Amino acid sequence: MRWKWNLQFFFHYRWIEGPLKNYKKENHPNAELCSVYYAPLNFRDIMLATGKLPPDALPGNLAMQDCVLGLEFAGKDSKGKRVMGLVAARGLATTVLADPTFMWEVPKEWSLEEAATVPVCYATAYYALVVRGKLRPGESVLIHSGSGGVGQAAIAIALSMNCRVYTTVGSSDKKELLKQLFPTLKEENFANSRDTSFEQHIMEQTQGQGVDMILNSLAEEKLQASIRCLATHGRFLEIGKFDLSKNSPLGMSVFLKNVTFHGILLDALFDFDSADKRAVVELVANGIKSGAVKPLPKTVYSDDQIEEAFRFMASGKHVGKVLLKIKDEDDVTGKKMVKAMPRTYFDSEKTHVIIGGLGGFGLELSSWLIERGVTKLSLVSRSGITTGYQDLCVRRWREQGVQVETPKANVTTLAGAQAVIETVQKSGPLGGIFNLAMVLKDGFMENQTIDNFKAVVTPKVNSTVHLDTVTRSLCPQLEQFVVFSSVSCGRGNAGQANYGLANSAMERICEMRHRDGLPALSIQWGAIGDVGVVSDHMGGNETVVGGTLPQRIPSCLAALDTFLQQRKPTVASMVLADKTGGRKEGGKKTTLVEGVAHILGMKDVRNVNGAANLAELGMDSLMGVEVKQALERDYDLVLSMQEIRQLTLNRLKEIDEGEAEGGATEEGPGSRRSSSPTEPEMIDLNDESAAQIKLFVQELMPKRALVKLNEGKVAGKDTIFVVHPIEGQPIISFEIKESLMAIYLRSYVCSI
Ligand SMILES: NC(=O)c1ccc[n+]([C@@H]2O[C@H](COP(=O)([O-])OP(=O)(O)OC[C@H]3O[C@@H](n4cnc5c(N)ncnc54)[C@H](OP(=O)(O)O)[C@@H]3O)[C@@H](O)[C@H]2O)c1
User: Fold this and answer.
1) Domain range holding 750?
2) Does the beta carbon of 484 sit less than 6 angstroms from any atom of ligand 1?
3) What distances in angstroms separate CA 570 from CA 508, 551, 751, one per listed residue?
4) Average pLDDT, whole number, for the chain?
């Protein structure tokens, strides 16, 4: 199980099922499965969760994955030994797969709660001060934000090396705490971290020389002031990510003092075994033995208080570490039952096949399968790789170590389907098959031909029939048999009778398989956004197709995840065009004012001055990011941070009520592009007042109830009956149908 953050209106955190249920020791010879008892939060988690740190800034391929929160843990290894360690990601979990060379046994006299405060802080401080900065006994060091976890660890290390320590803090309480923890620190060792006054203090204390080393986490003008505090031959160690990711300029003249500037990224130690990593592990182990490494002060939250824990840490009020307690240390079972969202993961040892896998949706599906554990993939198509983008995707996956084949094959014949499955099975069992093949030949019935029908039907129907037959006999371990259908077969779409028929037939095959107890899932999608035929040929994500808006790919994949967790063989997912806008939470609409109040931590806004702006109401920059995201996502309001700070509760109420004036114009920044939710309009055709609409609808009805098919092409074949789609106009249609049935119906189309 892992924590998932989900940036909805405000933070929502919930447990979700993790991938380790497929864990097999032999597949991870260099990893240790550990049960997590305490999971600490780090600032990286806060920045990721609030969107301040883009996932691309994470090492390896973590950017492509979700649920990446958590960098460290304290718990027990597979033999029950008490351990603490570092992980590249996903430490906020009940179980982690940890690197045994990046963990330490917990000393007998420490509790696991205490141990959890150690790994990241001490590893970072040793890595920065000793490995990168090469701190020498007796040197002077300025340690910013000394009351934080890394700050305290750095002070402890520097003092253990008899260095002269200066540190900055944000309040007198924090100063007092540090004086208690480190009695050798006196008043002159402290300065303020909330402004640049520390520069003058350091210069006075060092007789204008500056310090030999600076461990910096302050940003902007405080970063610049810190650099000016560096002595000749000094080393500047930057652990804050703000200016690094903003690419702030530094100024070269500082290097005239023969100084060095180090970007310190602990992440760099995770990827492979390096001398630096071994040095850090040894330094921490020696520090534990010598007593330089001591547990840090902490605030502990329970596993159901994650939101409170994040907010507390984001507020900057904490001292030392913020921990989540996952299990009781007395719990010898190491097992934790939590209510978790089920999640789909795929067996990495089995091959997964996507027919039509090089198409728009196919490539996205491939990425998602890989993210969920697939390591062997076969993307079947008639043409193979034809575009640079397909080639790029395949190359990237191969670089990640995924085995990707792109065979050109024809699975519309039994022999073709058999050949594909047999080839795949040579490298191991088949885990899942997804049929996304599609050919479109749209046209009204009078223009349709048998060839058009065949072209559309064979990749869907024939392929599915043969894949069903072949996998029944050859693939007893098959876990997924999924076909991508379309709402056009359930609801009908003008000119797509052949496509509707093809999709419908695939669904019936899935239902048959389901009755036989075999894996089967057919998904009726509405229009798909971002990629695929609609996106390529009909316009962007705002295009309304058949009453649906294109469903964006991340949303489709989330729906697919849910569908794979249930047992119904035919399901549908679409975004109705007239049901968008606004946001509902648990069936109840959350107003903008309620949402913003929650972000600001206000329980009741009734007694709050509606004219006060959000900055005056205590909104900090992290909260500002949340408000901005909520306004953009749920209300289509694009405002600058400056404008957000100026928003008042009264103004938010106006926006809620749709009475926006002034700033919220139809055009330009700050404009509101969507209205509040509207219910779909129902038209009663028998209502006198709707006479005009009735007339209009009748205009849309086909004038000819009986449409002759292309005579030449159907000669000698049985009569074809084509009945209106379910959501056609049944009342009028059935009347016609009944009267026609008596006189022998040849073909009948009714589609609007
Ligand atoms: N895009 C949408 O809005 C939407 C909406 C509802 C449902 N769907 C369903 O989602 C699936 C994927 O749609 P998409 O938009 O990604 O389509 P796409 O980009 O056109 O991809 C379809 C792929 O199918 C392959 N194909 C066609 N006939 C084949 C055959 N006989 N054997 C193997 N491969 C074959 C094509 O490659 P070759 O030409 O090289 O064979 C093509 O790459 C389809 O099944 C579609 O019905 C899509």
Assistant:
1) 702-752
2) yes
3) 9, 18, 23
4) 84
